Fold these 4 entries.
Entry 1:
Amino acid sequence: MLWVLLPGFVAVASGLLAWFVTQSRMEVRLAEQRETLAETRGAIAAERQALEISMRAAVRAAEETAKREAFDNFLAEIKVEQRHYTRENRMLMNSRKSLVLQERMYFRNIPLSDWIEHEIVLDDGADLERLVRDMTVFDKPVVNIADAPKRKQLVAG
């Protein structure tokens, strides 16, 4: 009976041993796969975070560029209208001649300011054009109202 049971017992024991070895190998491989998966997830999370940071920087740069271009376009639309004339004040025996310069700012065709008026007493033989250039408030090249094309007057008829 020992000769019959002993081979059966050895077969069952070796089967159990093979099952435990196979089970431990599968657990080791599963642990390796989980480790690889965790590393991959970490790398993806780091890459996503880096992408979000670079995306925020790109969006911020695009917003700043858009704001700067909008501001530049706004400033390009601002015009200065200028007119000047000479005024002569006569008091008894004294006559005083002065240059009056008026300027105002426009955005397209909308006036942004009232007329700003400057008056300077003229000496005999003074260069009017140079005085006008020196007296201007705005640094930007001005549009002289005298140089503007004449508009057609509507005639009621």
Note: Confidence is low (pLDDT under 50) at residues 153-157.
Entry 2:
Amino acid sequence: MNVIAVAREYNRRAMGQNWHHACDPTLAFSEPQHNQVLEIWRAKAAARKMPTRTEMTARDVKQHLRHIVLIQREEEKPSRYRWRLIGTSVTEIVGHNTGKLFNDSIPAEHLPRWIEAFDMVLESEQPWRFLGRVHISGREYLRAEHLYMPLADDTGAPAYVMGYCRYSPRYQDNDTISDDEIFSLPGALR
């Protein structure tokens, strides 16, 4: 997979469909905590593409746990995802959905982009950065910057996504992704 081409196409479509977010496989994070979690993931992966779900424990990310989500892909073509763990800071945004399918917990108008984003993470077998504006539960005043990392099941197949999700106030109040979000993307991804 040419991740730069995939990211560019995803971002073009996101802008055209007013998804108010973008992806960045170069992992140019604005906060150091994202890189701390990424280093834990990389250490667990060692020489492999990704660690297994059982290798990434709550103990490994305990200082970041309130910002962690764990998502499982239960079916492919079409993909169906289930929330396995939602940290307390993320629960404030997406609700108490642990154990629920995306289809039962994400507004229908947002479901296709969420599924496509997680499919990209699993199919590329690499971490991705996603950023943009929150569109859930009246939290539109927030911006999001997330790290999503693939995890393998016990057979080695990519089946889980672990996310480190951070939210902060937006500085612009309009319907587009703010300039600070767009300009934080490498030029090839805009």
Note: DSSP finds five helices and six strands in the chain.
Entry 3:
Amino acid sequence: MLAAGGTTVVRADGPRFLLYARPGPGARRTRSLPATNDWSQPLWFPALSGFEDREGTTWFRVRLPIRPNGSIGWVRGDQVGTRVLHERIVVDLSAHRLRRVASGRTSDDVSVAVGAPATPTAPGRFFVWARVPTGDPTGPYGVYVLGLSGFSDVITDWIGGGRMAIHGTADPADRGHEVSHGCVRVYNPQMRELTDVPMGTPVWIRA
């Protein structure tokens, strides 16, 4: 049901993702989520599993970009489109490293800043929720932002509800340190290499 050797991601066919608590005949819709983010970019949700029920309907169990972190839901295959991604981003918090892995090979491996002790970067499995050029390389978010599906465990009152991100920084001294409010900071010249990371790309943050 899911593609081997890659990550199947799904996109809503309409203006919203229609979500179900359980798959199968008679499934009841429990909620819906917008099919686009705050920048009107189409969202792609990674599928964790999939199957075909006895009526021939395909279902996908997907990660959701909502609190609490780790939330999942089911979508009908006839209400979404699919594609397969062959890359992921892996962040090792203790080593202060970010790796981009494409088709099993590491294409980027860089030193990064992570959350300070009072505002730690939340570990977990997330995905790319937004891709935003800032237009201000010297600003607080550097040259570019990859917004993530996950949220800070301690910050809730910021715009976006404390959503985490991988973003640039103009300060090379940030690298290798625990200085952020929960985001992963990448030095601008290296962040530019990540601007083509597709929407829906899995992001694994490890303690």
Note: The helical segments are 188-191.
Entry 4:
Amino acid sequence: MGLKLLAGFLTLLGLAAPLHGQSLDASACEKLASLKIEHVSLASRSVGAGEFSPPASPAGGVPNAPQAFANLPAMCRVTATLKPSSDSDIKMEVWLPVSGWNSKLQGVGNGGWAGSIFYFMMANALRGGYAVVATDTGHAGGMGDGTFAFNHPEKLTDFAWRAVHEMTVTAKAVIEAYYGNGPRLSYWNGCSTGGRQGLKEAQRYPSDYDGILDGAPANYMTHLSSHSLWVAHATLKDPASYIPKEKFAALHKAVIDACDGLDAVKDGVLENPRQCKVDPKSIECPAGTDASTCLTPPQVEAARKIYGPARNPRTGAEIFPGLERGSEMGWGALAGGPAPLSISTDHFKYIVFKDPQWDYRTLDFDKDVAKADEIDSGLLNATSPNLRAFFNRGGKILMYHGWNDTAISPENSLNYYNSVQAKMGRSQDVVRLFMMPGMAHCGGGQGPDQVNFMGALERWREQGIEPKVMIATRTVGPRVDMTRPICAVPQVATYKGTGSTNDAENFACK
């Protein structure tokens, strides 16, 4: 995860209520080290205001930018190692505000294959008055490195679901020991793998959290990995189909030129990309020529495959939805090579085939995807639409996904949302989905990407105020240059016809 994506995550984290309550002395923190919890070893120490310095990030892990930890309040920092199986080595941390605890717990998620704690998310939650917990999911390494799972089924189980559940149970016990009572409410906050973790919690352990903030979930992991390699097959398997970076810009220009006005606002952002039907053939190079402003016939076919869903070649069934028009400037990670995303190749190398030498070019989108599903059998995938137990105890899930996401196709979130609606009938009572025009993976991109989602989730869960529309902002440096409403599916923001198109007041959800 680069600094731009880190900034995207930071902008998506809403603040909770102002700090209040009494302070606790250092001895209360020190005593936590002697707390007895099965399979858990604890250490604790007091950290004064502004004194926290994060550990070094592992190679390929989340960069711990210093500005993310400036001016942190005083806390009791609890570190723990959990060993629920003979091969488990789960690291976790709980940060407890010394004063002003808001009586809530916030669990924060990971990205990719995890391998480190997202300290920047912990910092933001602590500033909001939360007791906050996070885990490395049971191994140390980069987010693109899945080697930990090779012949280590218990570590894979820890990554899949066990680490998050065990850290949550442990955190609640630590909180009760420190404050004298457990959290009044518990919230989850995660995007990408963190989104998958949140859905897995709701499906498997519905009493762990009361509200779940769920961004761009990697919840259909076997098919997500397959889709990543579908794109790699389209552009990397045959050199003639490779699309150079400068041609992404040419295709993006063609899309924006043709479709930007469909929402009655020309701002370089497609409010609803599914209305756009531009065919890459529209910029096909004249026969026998090539240039940075056009696509050769093999490149046209490759682009069509990227827009289209990954499909089973035998049955025609959709494996995973394609990328949306308007997202072309972000295609490089999946389509630009020189190799596919290691997150996806490692899934097949170390989990499906258990062969470090496996070649992505040999992937069979019929038999091998079926094999991946059979091996997973619900371990990593979090696709169950049955949220009845979570719903019955008042649980709420607020989902969001950027239309320009290229790491996880945005329609995947729509598919899950619709499956819940079909299963439960009253899905909007428990799940709300917000699609964000122009936003990339978990943040960034060309559209407004800064929203106080956590505040909206809290008001929904605690006050019954349903999230129907929220205001997103886009900043350039220190300046806000655009505000725009984002609307709960199935509505979209529609321009009223007068006033600045950079002002949310001139739009309505319809």
Note: The CA atoms of residues 222 and 373 lie 6 Å apart.
